[in-house]
Design a protein that fits this description.
With about 120 residues, the chain is mostly helical. It is about 65% helix and about 0% strand. The longest helix is centred in the first third of the chain and has 18 residues.
Amino acid sequence: MNVTLPTRTLLLLALAAPLQAASTYAPWPSQDVLKMLQKEAFLCSLNNSPDQCDPARQRADELMDHPRLPAICKDVLWGLVKESHVAATNSFQRRDAIDHPASRLIKVCSEPVKPFKKQAPTRT
């Protein structure tokens, strides 16, 4: 009995360790962060310079690792990371490939708002 008690205790501690590590809270990205990324992406599309494209790509890459963002948001972010490079010519296809995910960014990546239930009218 004395041998199994430490074994059971160690097993219980080993199983509880991931629960303690998963308790860190990551707040949802603010609207300001998303708007800043959107603005940087539009500037990258318009100007085709490293001064605008590098910060947009870096900010989108940082948000890719955010634990609370849904997969559809990460798809939009991936589109920005993939396309926000300086190109030899600033063609319409390049601008559209950056502008399309940038325009969807706020709608797709914003924190969802729970709708309020309307109270049923009371009969008097």
